[in-house]
Amino acid sequence: MKRYNNYQKYSTFTTRRQLKKTKNRLIVTLIISLILLYLAFFWLIPSIIGALSKLNNFKPQPTKISSLSQNITLAPPDLNIPYDATNTATIIINGNSNPNLFVEIFVNNSLASTTEADQNGNFTSDPISLQSGDNQIYGKTKDSSNHESLASKEIDITFNNTPPQLTITEPQDGQVVTSSDQTVVVSGQTNSDGNTTVTINGYRAIIDDNGNFSESIPITNGDNTITIIATDNSGNVTQITKKVTYQGSSPTPSISPSEQPTPTPSS
Question: What is the pTM of this model?
Fold first, then answer.
């Protein structure tokens, strides 16, 4: 009986000990769970959201189909600029577009003029200022709802108002010419950029890579005026005039038989 009581006491002690361990484990598990929940709420979830946001930035942005279709329905204007260089600081551009639309003209990506096409689609811009050198010009059409077309084809125009270089090395002004073929050699130099032409009394001279030229020009008896004109592709002109006089060599006079002296007979 005593042994049974001792066993019963031992069993009760063991049970209490196991219950205490179970309780401690439960408390530790609860604490760890709270810590994990704290970390998940304040660190893990924000990190996942931030990562998803970064991945979302790499996705292509959806195209605004309605806006793009509106641009496609408006055709860009057709600009009529029949030259690629000018010596005029301001130009006026004509063209055509869809009728009754506004036409915007841009120079070097800056809006330079806004005009309105008539019922036939024709338009004329305000005077447009050019900068010295290259100018890139294009246009857009716009309707009353501010829907804008794509840009027209870009046109490059060079503004240059500097006259071309021109020097004449021969002939000298007032020179007397006695060549047998009744011509005078005109030599000189102009710009070597390939954008300049030279005419001499209407004859076009051949210019080499260094800008040099030399041509034989026919002249008439007596006084002659030689006009040399250099013109660049912007329309700038330089002109030089030379005066020359042609004097052909006089032929040797011939004596007719009747004019020959009669020999005197000897006595």
Answer: 0.62
